[in-house]
Automatic annotation (TrEMBL), chain A:
Residues 21-218 form the ABC transmembrane type-1 domain. SUPFAM superfamilies: MetI-like. It is a multi-pass membrane protein. GO terms for biological process: amino acid transport. This is Glutamate transport system permease protein.
From TrEMBL, chain B:
PROSITE patterns: ABC_TRANSPORTER_1, ABC_TRANSPORTER_2. It is found in: Cell membrane. Residues 1-10 have a biased composition (Polar residues). It comes from Promicromonospora thailandica. SUPFAM superfamilies: P-loop containing nucleoside triphosphate hydrolases (SSF52540). It catalyses: a polar amino acid(out) + ATP + H2O = a polar amino acid(in) + ADP + phosphate + H(+). Keywords: Amino-acid transport, ATP-binding, Cell membrane, Membrane, Nucleotide-binding, Transport. The lineage of its organism: Bacteria, Bacillati, Actinomycetota, Actinomycetes, Micrococcales. This is ABC-type polar-amino-acid transporter. PANTHER family: AMINO ACID IMPORT ATP-BINDING PROTEIN, GLUTAMATE_ASPARTATE IMPORT ATP-BINDING PROTEIN GLTL.
C-alpha cells in the first residue's frame, strides 16, 4: 500500500502535473480576456441600431456557438497554421499555445456575447430612453449607461461561461498543446495503467478544486454587485 | 389658437424669455407639429395632429388612457417615430437617428413617468452626466450646476445617495434636475406624477409650478387639474388619437365644449 502511494507521488512529480494545470489556467486566462473583448463587441453589434451590424453579430454567434470546439481547434492548427501558414510565435510551443488561445476566444466569444445580452435584458428600457433623452448617442449611452448595468446583471452567466472555458481549455490538445492536462493524463495512463484510477482522480479533483471557487465567487459577486432598482 | 401659423421657423427672439405668463404675451412658436400621424399596427394613435407650443407657454395635455397623449409627448424628442407629418423644435425639423438627433434631444428635457434615473449612478452623477459627456463641461462646473439645481428642487441633501435609496417623489425631482442641467429649451413631462404615492405628488408639482413661473416652456401630460389650473396657459384634450378640444384651463374644467371632454371630466371629478 505504502509502495503504491509513494509510486503515485513519484509519478506526479515525474510528469509535472502542476505545470499541466498551470498551462490550462493560462489558456483560460488569455482565452477569457480575448473572449470578453470580442464578446462585448459582438453584444454591442447585436444591440446597435444598425441593421447590418446586428445581422453580422447574430451570424457570428450562430456559426461559432454551433461549431464543435474540437473542429475550431483542429482548424487553428491544420488550417490557420499549416495551410495558411499564419504563425503567431516563432517557437513551436508558443505558436500552438497562441493558436489555442485564439480558438478558445473565438468560440467562447459567442457565449460571452449571449451572456452580456442577457445582462442587457435586465436593464429596463427606460434607462436607454433616459440616456437618449439627455442627448447621448448610441455608443456613449451603451458605454456609460447600458453596459455597466448589463455586466453587473450578467456576472452569473459570464461565470458559467468562464467555467465552461476552463474545462474546454483541455481541447487545446487538439491544437497540439500537448503539455496541458488532458494530454498529460493520457500519457500518464498509457505508461502507468496500474495507476489508472488514481491518475484520473488527480485530474478530476484538480478541476473540481479550480471550478468550485469560480462558481462561489461569481454567485456572491452577482449578488453584491446587483443594481438596486 | 395659431395652429395654422406658417412660420418657417426662425429661432425665437430672446426678449420673450421673461415674458409674463399671460396667454397673449407668449413668444414665437417653439414646438410645432403639423399633420402628424402615427400607427401602432392597426391602431391609429396620432391622427393628423396639429399643435403649436410657443416659447414660454405651459401646455397641459389631458385625456383618457390610450388617447395618444404619451405618444404625442414622446414623439417630440423622437423616442417614438412618426409615420408622416413634421415636428419642428425651435425651427429645426427632427433629424433622423444620429448625431444631429442627439444634439436636438439635449435641448429638449424629458421627465418620465417611471423617473428612469440611472440606477448605477449617484444622484449627483445622474445630474452631471449630461453636462459633462454631452456638453463637455468640467467636472467642477457640472457639480456646481448640479448642486444648484438639486437645491432648487429640494433634494440637495441627497446628492451622494443612489436612486434606489430615494422616495419616488425625490427621484422624480432629481429627474427634473437632470433634465434642467442640459439647459433645455423646452421640457416634456410624460405623466410625471402617475407613478407616485399620493403624498409625494405635491412636492413634484410644486417643483413644476416653480419652473413654469420662471418662464420654462413646458408640455405636460398629466391628470393633475390643480397643476393645470395653477400653471397652464392652455389645455389640450385628446381622445382616440385626436385633439378634441383646446382651451384655457379654467374654461376647460368649468365649461368643456365637447361631449367627450364632459364625459371624461365627469368620470375623474365625481370622486
Amino acid at each position: 500500500m505504502n509502495d503504491h502511494l509513494s509510486g503515485l507521488g513519484a509519478l506526479l512529480l515525474q510528469y509535472d502535473v502542476l505545470g499541466a494545470f498551470w498551462t490550462n489556467i493560462q489558456l483560460t486566462f488569455w482565452g477569457a480576456l480575448f473572449a470578453l473583448a470580442l464578446g462585448t463587441l459582438l453584444a454591442l453589434m447585436r444591440i446597435s441600431p444598425i441593421v447590418s451590424l446586428r445581422w453580422a453579430g447574430a451570424t457570428y454567434v450562430s456559426v461559432f456557438r454551433n461549431t464543435p470546439l474540437t473542429i475550431i481547434m483542429t482548424f487553428m492548427v491544420m488550417g490557420v497554421w499549416t495551410a495558411l501558414q499564419i504563425q503567431l510565435a516563432d517557437d513551436f510551443q508558443n505558436n500552438f499555445f497562441r493558436l489555442a488561445v485564439v480558438g478558445l476566444a473565438v468560440y467562447h466569444a459567442a457565449f460571452v456575447c449571449e451572456a452580456i445580452r442577457s445582462g442587457v435584458n435586465t436593464v429596463p428600457l427606460g434607462q436607454a430612453e433616459a440616456a437618449r433623452a439627455i442627448g447621448l448617442s448610441f455608443l456613449p449611452a451603451a458605454r456609460l449607461i447600458i453596459l455597466p448595468q448589463a455586466f453587473r446583471g450578467a456576472i452569473a452567466p459570464l461565470g458559467n461561461t468562464l467555467i465552461a472555458l476552463l474545462k474546454n481549455s483541455t481541447v487545446a490538445a487538439a491544437a497540439s498543446v500537448s503539455w496541458e492536462t488532458s494530454s498529460t493524463m493520457k500519457t500518464m495512463i498509457e505508461f502507468n495503467p496500474n495507476y489508472l484510477w488514481e491518475i484520473f482522480a488527480v485530474f478530476a479533483i484538480g478541476y473540481v478544486i479550480l471550478v468550485i471557487p469560480i462558481g462561489l465567487l461569481t454567485t456572491s459577486l452577482s449578488r453584491r454587485l446587483a443594481v438596486k432598482r | 389658437m395659431d395652429q395654422t401659423t406658417s412660420t418657417t421657423g426662425q429661432p425665437a427672439a430672446d426678449e420673450t424669455a421673461d415674458a409674463p405668463r399671460s396667454g397673449d404675451a407668449l413668444g414665437a412658436p417653439l414646438v410645432e407639429l403639423k399633420h402628424v400621424n402615427k400607427h401602432f399596427g392597426a391602431l391609429h394613435v396620432l391622427q393628423d395632429i396639429d399643435l403649436t407650443v410657443r416659447k414660454g407657454e405651459v401646455l397641459v395635455v389631458i385625456g383618457p388612457s390610450g388617447s395618444g397623449k404619451s405618444t404625442l409627448c414622446r414623439a417630440i424628442n423622437r423616442l417614438e417615430t412618426i409615420d408622416d407629418g413634421t415636428i419642428t423644435v425651435d425651427g429645426k425639423e427632427l433629424p433622423e437617428e444620429g448625431k444631429a438627433l442627439a444634439k436636438l434631444r439635449a435641448e429638449v428635457g424629458m421627465v418620465f413617468q417611471s423617473f428612469n434615473l440611472f440606477a448605477h449612478k449617484t444622484v449627483l452623477d445622474n445630474v452631471t452626466l449630461g453636462p459633462r459627456k454631452v456638453r463637455g463641461m468640467s467636472k467642477k462646473d457640472a457639480e456646481e450646476l448640479a448642486r444648484t439645481l438639486l437645491d432648487r428642487v429640494g433634494v440637495g441633501n441627497q446628492a451622494e445617495k443612489m436612486p434606489a435609496q430615494l422616495s419616488g417623489g425625490q427621484q422624480q425631482r432629481v429627474a427634473i434636475a437632470r433634465a434642467l442641467a442640459m439647459r433645455p429649451k423646452v421640457m416634456l413631462f410624460d405623466e410625471p406624477t402617475s407613478a407616485l404615492d399620493p403624498e409625494m405628488v405635491n412636492e413634484v408639482l410644486d417643483a413644476m409650478v416653480a419652473l413654469a413661473q420662471e418662464g420654462m416652456t413646458m408640455i405636460v401630460v398629466t391628470h393633475e387639474m390643480g397643476f393645470a389650473r395653477k400653471a397652464a396657459d392652455r389645455v389640450v384634450f385628446m381622445a382616440d388619437g385626436q385633439i378634441v378640444e383646446e382651451a384655457h384651463p379654467e374654461e376647460f374644467f368649468t365649461a368643456p365644449k365637447s361631449e367627450r371632454a364632459r364625459d371624461f371630466l365627469s368620470k375623474i371629478l365625481t370622486h
